[in-house]
Structure formats: structure tokens, C-alpha cells
Batch of 2 targets.
Target 1
Amino acid sequence: MKAKVSNRQLGETRLGWMLSAPAVIILLAVTGYPILQAVYFSFFNYRMTDPDNRFVNWGQNYIVILTDPLWWQTVGVTLLLTVVTVAVELVLGFALALVMLNALRAVRPWVRTAILIPYGIITVVAAFSWKYAFDLGTGFVGTWLAMPEFDWFGDFWSSFLVICAAEIWKTTPFISLLLLSGLAQIPGDMLEAATVDGATWWQRMAKVIIPNMKAAIMVAVLFRTLDAFRVFDSVFVMTAGAQSTATVSFLTYNQSISQLQLGMGSALSVLLFLSVALICFIFIRIFKVDLAQARGE
Amino acid sequence: MRHTARRNRLRRGGLVGLAVLGLVAATGCAADISTPTLTWYINPDNGGQATIAEECTAEADGAYRISTSLLPNDAPSQREQLIRRLASRDSSIDIMSLDPVYVAEMANADYLTPVPEEYIDEFTDGVIPSSVESSTRQDELVATPFWANTQLLWYRKSVAEAAGLDMSQPVTWDDIIDAAAAQDKRVGVHGIRAESLTVWVNAMIESAGGSIVENPDADGAAEVELGIDSEAGRRAAEIIEKIAATGVGGPQLSNLDENAAMLEFQSDSGGFMVNWPFIYPATKAAVEDGSLEQAVFDDIGWTLYPRVDEDEEARPPLGGINLGVGAFSDHPDLAYRAVECIRTPERQSAYFLTDGNAPSNLAAFDDPAVQEAFPAAEVIAESLAASAARPLTPYYNEVTGGIQKSWHAPGSVDPESTPARSQAFILEVLKGERLL
């Protein structure tokens, strides 16, 4: 039987709706409208500087994209980049979170600040720093590794490695921060009980810490996966998509901003949007990520 | 007590301040109301365009005032910003410094006010033909040639001498590649996947007697006809293949841009290089600040762009800036009066002296000050006269994007397949059947 809702509860619900309505309306206006317009444009052959030759081509843009090897290649590169960076960041981020949690009280603020510095640097600036460090003309990394004549941006794998390294360096602090909040939520008495019962460090980690952090880990992985899938800056700055390093976002940028092909570009944005939505769906429905739980609610 | 005194002081100070502001505003407003302000969107330079704007404002004697607004660093970003503004009918764009390759696209989209009849002769007489051509769309002058740029063949005298090359006579790509390969030196080219790759490929195809786009005046992307899959295209591919295969392009070939090529040319491995005239002032400055030896500077020579075939004159690249007047400007007449002032041969030679950007008007090269400051001026003028513009099609962006994709990396270029593959790919992109 459904509990009777009191007048006060009803009033509060109404007040809640009224308070959140302005934000919801603004959010719909600034996100819903562009999304709908992109969907609309995606059914046109529309070049911004050739408006006279604009015509509706229905689903042709989607057919061209989905049958073009370049699309699948960029999807492949983006997925590979996502998997590699998120996996490495998770391991490194966890280690850094442990360091931040267990550092001596006196040095803790310094450790946390030092770890967070890369995250505070603007992505484009970070990308340029990495580019200049590895560039054959200005770079020093080649000399350090005794490979002064090696062009890091000369083929796919070496370019990919540098892009991954830049991404990992830049966003590991974000993951470690999310994991730190998960670590901090594990009750101290639970760990003490495990220690008293004679559990080793590894057993405490595998049986107590990680299972209790599942929500925090999944949220960190979800956020980073969404971020990594939309990677743009590093690729744009370091290779401009050369050596087959173009990602889905870069391809979309190229079509809409450089080529001014609003129709094709919009179709690509719609597909990028659907991919991101699919990732969210997989995480929330299949891996059962509980966003509320991660916030400690 | 003290507080009241302070408050009074503050109030008095505030009143005086307001009165001063009011006076300034009143005088400023009076000038502003009667004098229309023209906004000139300029590409970054050493300040020469801003100086010209000031001079022309003074010369206009109250008829107009020119204020400059800075565009991004590279030409593609300049195009993006201008087009985004023009697509939303931005009336603040009165005058634009345009890269010649984007003139056709802007004219096709009706973003430019064509040059009025009364200025046409003045703006084209004595001007480098390729610069006029790059300002013209379907037989109509839609922009005004301002400054022009071209690439020269820069060489190390010691390397050329050791190879027995007579640099006073035209040389071919084969000559310089062989000379460099024999001495383990480099040939500086632009193999990076960027606009400079298209500049290079276009210059070689034009020098071999071909053209990337055969009907630049075509209406509609699907109507564009290409000449990449041709004998000229194959000759260009052969040269690129040879540079990559002999190793004279160096390890950085696929990422070599103008600046990187210059640094390589200035190093011990430098032999030959095609590049813009900025090499001369940049190398001179490097010697002056002590980062380069005088001997290197003394060893540098320059001549016309290399030929593809011995008996066919080279068509060096054309760069530079043309001036466009925005279609949505509130003062197109005044804007053209300002353009008339900006592009005079005297200002072009002064601009060459301050900013190192060569004039489009051949008369400007006669200035003795120009000849003294730029020993290469004579060769630059000769090179400009022979230069060929990149394809003047409204669909240039697809064409250059397609070239950059299909001719990169230089090591993968194959004369048998690259030109055909490149042509088929660009045609598909133009028809909206492929992604770029």
C-alpha cells in the first residue's frame, strides 16, 4: 500500500520543482536546442560558404560516414586511446591516491598540491609542452633516450605513445582525486578488524579496500572514459591528425569547422553524441554504476 | 571627524574625475560621430599594417578612421574566424587581410564587395599577374593585391660549389637532390601535413606544366575538374619519392615545416632549401644575437625556385595578402578609399622594409632603400613574376585538405599510385561521398 503523502511533503516537492525549474529550462535551452539543430542539419548537404547548393539528402551523410573507412579508423584510434589511457591512469591514480592518503601529515598538503599540478594546466598548453619536448627540432627527449635522429611524430605508434603519455600525465590527478574520496570513505575500524584478523596488505587491499571502493572506481572510470573518448586537444596540437592519429572529435572538428560542411559535421556530432550516450548506458546499466552512492548519499 | 573629511575629499575627487571623464567623452564623441571608423582585420605582422592604418587615418583628414583588429596566427584559423563572422553578416568587417587562396571561396559566398570600376586600373596596373589573378573570381576583381610572397631556392655556396653546380643558371630538383645526396647534405622541403605541403606540391605540378584544378571558375563542388592524375602530377610525385628515398629530406621530413627546414638548413647538414624570403632577415638576426656564425650567413646564396624539367621554367609558389572589403560593411565606399591609401607602391615598399613582406606592385621594388635592405629583392621580383597561385577555387579547402592527406607522409608517395589515388579521393570528398 502506498503511503499517504502529507501536505507538507507535497509542498516540498512542489517547491523543489520550482527551485530547479529555472536551471532545467536554461539547461534544455543551451543543450537541447543545439542538439536538435545538429540533428536537423545532419540531413542536409550543407556547406556554409556555398549556401546556394544546400539541399536535403536525408540519411546520405550517415551512410557516407558509416561506410567510410576513415570513420572506423578514427573510432578504432579513439577506443584504443581510451582503453590505454584509462587503464594506465587507473593504476597510477590508485597508487597516487594511496600516497596522498598515507603521506605524513606534515607533507600531505605539499604532496596533494604537487600531484594536482598537471591537472591545473590547460590541456592545450600541456599538449604544446609535450610536443616541444618530443619534437625533433626543439625536443630534448630524443637526446635523453640516445635517439637524437628519431622523429617521434613520424609514425603512428610513436605519435600515439606521446599523445597517450600527455593524456595520462594530465588527467591521472583527476582519477586519483576521485579514488582518494573513495579511499577516505572506507571505515577505519573495518581495516583495523582485518589487520587484527591477520590479513596481509594484499588481502586487505583485495578483500576490503577495493570492494568498498567499487562505486568510486566505476565513477572515476566512467568520467575518464567519457573524457578520453572526446579527446581532441592533444591530437590537434601534436599531429593535427597526421600519421592516422585522428580521433572522432578531431574528424568532427575537421568537417564542421575547417571544411564548413555543416551537414556532414552535424551528422558526425550526432554520432559522437550517440557514442557517448552508449558509453554512459553501458556503464550505468551493465556495470551498474551508482552515481549517488559515489557521492556518499 | 576624520571620516567626514575623508569622505568629502573622496567626493570632491570623484566629482573632478567625473568632470574630466565627461570632457574626454564629449570631445571623443564629437570626433567619433563625424568620423566613421573602419575596422581592418589584419594578419599578425611586425606592426607594419597598424602603422599604415595610422598613416591613412591621418591622410584621410577626418573622412574615416582605420582601427585594426588582429586575426589568429595561421591562415586557416584566420579564414575560420572571418567566415564565421561573415556568415552571421558582421558589419564590423570593413577591410580584411586575406590569404589569396581564400578569396574565391569568400567571393563565391558573396562575402566580398567587388572592387568598384573606378579603382580597377589603379589596383592592377604594374601588379604581378598571379597576384591579380588570385584577386579575381569569374573575371571580376573581388579583392586588391597588397603584398606578395614567393619562395626562392636557398643554397649553401660551399655545397653547390663542391657539387660543381652553376647557381647563376637555372637548376632542377634532380640537380640539387643529387648534389646533396653526394655530400650527405639535406634538401629542405615542407613535408609536414599542413598548407605548406600543398604549396610545395602545387609549385611542382605547375612547374611541370600542369594544374591541380583545371576549371577554377566552376560552380558547384561536383563540377570541379582536377589535373593531379597527370604527367605533371607524376613528375611531382617522382621528386618527392626521390627526396624521401635518398634521405636528403632528413629524419624529420614528414614533420618539416618552413621554420624547421630553416633550422636544418642553418645546421652543418644544410645544403639546399626552398623557402620564403624571411630566411634572410631571420638568419641575419640569428648572427646578430650570436646564435649563428657569420660564416654560415656568408655561405648562404639564393636563386630562383628549382625547375622540374630542365627546359621548362619553374613556377614558384605565390603567397601574400590581398585586401578584401566585407560585403556587410556599412561603409564600402570609404573602405575602398582606405584600400586605395593602404596599397600604394610607396607604402608597399615601406612595408617591405619594416616587415619583410614583398610588394605586389613591381614598381615598389625600384625603391633604392628596398634594394639595399634586401639583396634578394631582384630575385624575389623575378620569382614573383613567374609565380603560380594555388588553385583559385571556392572549394580550395577540400582540395588542400585532400592533397595534405593523400601526399603525406612523403615517404609513402609513389608516382604510380599517389596522383591517381589523390585525384579520386578529392573528387569523392567534393561530391560529399568521402570524409576528409
Note: Strands of chain A lie at 44-45, 55-56.
Target 2
Amino acid sequence: MPADSNRREVMSLDEFKRWFIAELDWSPEEVSEDSDLIFDLGMDSVGAVDLMVGIEEAVGGDVIMPIELMLEINTLRDAYLQYCALAHLPLDDEARR
Amino acid sequence: MTAGPDENREAGPVLTGGATPLSPSLETRRLHLRVLQSDDHAPLYRLSADPDVTFQWRFRGTTPSFDDFLKQLYPGVLCQFVVSPLGSREVFGLVVAYNADFRHRFCHAAVVMHPRLHRRGLGIEAFMGLARYIYYGWDFRMIIMETVGIAFENFASGERAGYFTVEGRIRDQFYYGGRYWDGLAVTHRREQFETVMRGPVGRLLTPGNHVLRTHEDRVI
């Protein structure tokens, strides 16, 4: 089955916030879209791994979050935007495993 | 016969399948650990002098000559790899295993990454790639890391998550930025590696499907 067909339905921003709070152990119970992940929410490298792995799993299709998308993420809103980007970018057939 | 780049990439230290099943992988999900070559020396020298790196790496703020830097790059090293993004030779950082003790079966390790990559998870991914290589190739029981409190803050939650154990702490050992910071000795034991790799974090060392991008991974 093509990996694209394994991708999941894209969450809305509100759904993503609820997912963020429920999925990430380090998330406080209340977050704002403008919360800075590092400075406001205390994300460290291990927290960043949780977030990237979580986003990849939420997108489905065993998609890899590219490094340049990871580096665009500073706030929760950024995380949502890069999640959406990842969910919509086509797969690279030449690089496919 | 050599296996292709997409073969033999599995989470655990024991690799199976492919044409060369005994080859340990040096690829992670996003990164490639590659052997240090002469054209990496200058980027690493610049990294060692970066204000956000130097006090936490081996030179602790001093500025050795390029020749002295090179002389200190290899002694005591068991293995070391430049960290690059997959498909690129860009220098993201360096992972090093050193001061191996074969009688008591442990070694030390260090990770240095470009400051722009701090708290992004790539240092963890690079370290896990190194740990897989170490535990695959040597019957070591643990990897020991010595770190400064200010650097430890970049990955401190890993203790709660079971990545490692803080075994020792010297209070106020290091001066930096107008205050003293603790020195910490941290162990990452083989069983911790295997446990962590069986969970979601094991994904860091597995292949996946790349998306089509419009530009290359160039961040430095």
C-alpha cells in the first residue's frame, strides 16, 4: 500500500492544541498558540524528539519531518503550520525507502 | 557486496537482513554519522570557538591554534563521526566515543552540535546513532557522559524519560556567565538504550518516507 494512503486526516488548530496537551508529557494543561516551546513551555532536546515523533505519527505514512521544517518551529502555532506542511507535502519518490 | 543506504537501518544494535547483515548502520532518520575527514577540520574548529559552544566543549573558552586543535582531536578517541544531514556533507556537529575501558567495559561519549540545532532533538538523534554503533561493536555496559549544568539543561528531561541516569554531581564546579554551574556525570546503560529504542524514540533510528522539498537542508 502506498505510504501516501496511510496518511491521516489533518487536524484543525484547536484539535492540534488538544492533541499537543494530551500527547506530550511535558506540556502544561493550558497552552496558547503563541507559547514559545522552549522559553514558555520548557521544551528541551528530549521534548523536541517527543514532538517530532508525535507529529510524524499524527501525519501517518511513516513520513519523516525534514530538518528545515523542524527548525521553523518556535511556537505552538509554528508546530501546527509545519505539521500541516508535512501532511500536504508529496512524498519524494526518489528518496523513498 | 555492499548494502544500499536504505538497507540495514533498524532501531536496535542487532541488525538483520540485507546483503551485509553484520554492517552497523551509521544513518539515523535524518542524519548521517560519517568518518571525520580533513575538510571537516576547519568547520569543526570554527564550531569549537563558537561562543555558545566553546565553554561547554573541551576547550572551555580558550582559543587554541588550529594546529593544537587538530592535535587534540584524536588522542583517546575510540570512534568519532561528523554529524551531517542525510544526503549532505554539511557539518552539524560531532559525536565522539573516547577513553574506552575494555576491562570494565565502558567508554565515555560527547556530543557537540551547532547552536542553531540545540533543543531540536537532533543531538539526541545523533547520540542514539552513536550509541547503536558502540553497543553493536563493543560489549560495553555503559556510556558515560560528563557535562556542565548549562548544557545539561538542553536534555535534562531525558532522565525522567529513562534515557540516562545522573550518577554524580559536583556542585558549582564550573564558572560561566556570571555564576557557577554543577558538573554532572551521566550514564547511558545498554539496557536503557534497548528499552528506549523499543519505544517511540526507536523511530529516530529507523528509515521512513521523505517528503519532496523545494530546497536543500541548509541551516548553517
Note: The domain at 31-141+195-207 of chain B is CATH 3.40.630.30 (Aminopeptidase).
